[in-house]
Structure formats: C-alpha cells, structure tokens
Amino acid sequence: MKKEVDARGQACPRPVIMTKKALDEISEGIVTTIVDNEVAKENVSKLAKSLGYEYSVDKNGENEYYIHINKGQVMEETNVCVPDTFKDMTIAFSSNTMGGGSEELGKILMKSFIYTLTESTPYPSTLVFYNGGVHLTCEGSPVLDDLKKLEEEGIEILSCGTCLDFYKIKDKLSVGSVTNMYSILEKLKNPTKTVIIG
Amino acid sequence: MEYKEYGVVTFESTHHAIRGEKILENANLKFKTIPTPREITSSCGLSIRFDLDDIDKVKSTILENELAIKGLYRMSKIDSKNHIEKIN
Q1: Do B21 and A105 touch (CB under 8 A)?
Q2: Distance between CA atoms of A2 and A165, rounded to whole angstroms?
Q3: Assigned CATH topology for domain A2-76
Q4: A108, A116, A118, A141: which to substitute to probe chain B, counting the most B Cβ within 10 Å?
Q5: What is residue A113's predicted lDDT score, i.e. its pLDDT?
Q6: Which residue has the higher pLDDT, A38 or A75?
Q7: What is the rounded average pLDDT of the residues A82-109?
Q8: For chain B, what are the domain ranges?
Q9: How close does chain A come to B88, measured CA to CA in Å?
C-alpha cells in the first residue's frame, strides 16, 4: 500500500496532521509526504521517529522534500538503544522563572535547576519549552551553556514555534529545534513521567 | 576517568547570594549560580561556582564589596564523587 500526501503550501502543523492521518488509514506500507520547507520536513520526520517507523528524506530542488515513511517496518524497539543514562521522562518549562512569587528569585532558581539537570543522571529524555519558557533556549539566556551541554549528551530540546514567533525571537533560537503543539502533546503524554516547571 | 575542579562560594542567606551574583557580574568574572553542593550543606541554598584560576580576583572582590560569605571551597570531582576542601 502506497500513499502520497501533498502538504506543500500547508501551514504548521497541518503537514504533520495530514501525515498522521494517512498513516492511520493504512495497515502497512509507505506514506510519502511532500513539503516545501525545512521546518515541516523536520516535524514530519520527527513524527515518523516518534512513532518508531523507518523513514528517509529526499530533497528535490531548493524547497521540496519527500519524506518516505515505512509503516510496515517498525524499528527495533526504539528504547532498546536508549542508554540507561536516560529516563523516559519529559520536563516542560512554561516560563523562564521557577515558581510564582519574586521574579528575581524565580530566574535564579531556574538557572540553578537547569544547572542541576546537567549534574544528575539519569537525564530526562526530553525538555520542552513553551510560552515564556522559550526565552531560555534563545540568545541571551543565562542557561544556554547548560542546555547545550545537555543537548550534546543526547537530550532532545524542543521549543514551541508559535511562542518563538509570538515573542519575535524565532531567529534567536540557540539550542535544540522548533516544534509544534502536536509534538508537544506527544512529548507530554507519552513518557512514563512528565514534570512541568514554570 | 573524569576529573573536574572548581571553586564554590557559599553565603549566609539567599539575599546575600543574589547580591554576590550581581557583584561578581559587575567584576566581569565568569561564574555560575548553583545549588549549594550537598557535601557542604544539605539545606536548600544558593552558591556561586567559579573557575579556580580566578580565586584571587574572587577573594578581592568579596573583600572590596564586604560581601557576607559563609565559606569558600575547592570542589574536586572525580567521576561522580565529590571531594570538598575549605579554602581560607
């Protein structure tokens, strides 16, 4: 069974939703999604990865990506290759301060919290940043060094694209990648444990 | 084996730590605000981690600004084991 999803010209998160729908409709086979920008390509690839399906990307011309997702071939238990330095856990950051009360203290606590994350294993598998939290992953953030270190260790770092856009700091993102509400929800509900800091 | 070494300043209170942060920032020192290492005290507190190369500058900045500190430590980390030594 083969299916083609033409998601060119579709705004985020439509390409991901269209791909997911096509994958749900077939029991096995290949879904090829065509998108016309890098972010959509990344998001559709991430969807395939998170579902555990094998996928490949062909770049066709300047702004055309073909993502082939093979539903029949489930990758060998994705968590088998996750080293035990990771815990199946997402930490979500909804603000650039930790807790309510004093903003000055909240900022310091957040710095202290993220530093401590680098010092303690097992690491959480994913960090998600949204609303005011996206200031932490952008230029000028006091925790960039620590987040970069965590990223090097293999922790997935995701920032909400809508939020980066709202604060007009999309071009200032300095660590991790951009994500959408679809993946944010998955990252919050799929792991064994989710903690929200904000 | 992984070996790391750095200095830690602990304070009398959170407010002193916040003040310390500002003062060291103005002195253009490279540092990090961290939770006080458990080996020093288990109470919740903030400390400042600095590069031991800067020890003299950290000391003079503390003196000049009459910063109320509680202690100055050398932290050696071997793999994940910490070794703490007080600096005078």
Answers
A1: no
A2: 36
A3: Translation Initiation Factor IF3 (3.30.110)
A4: A108
A5: 95
A6: A38
A7: 88
A8: 3-86
A9: 26
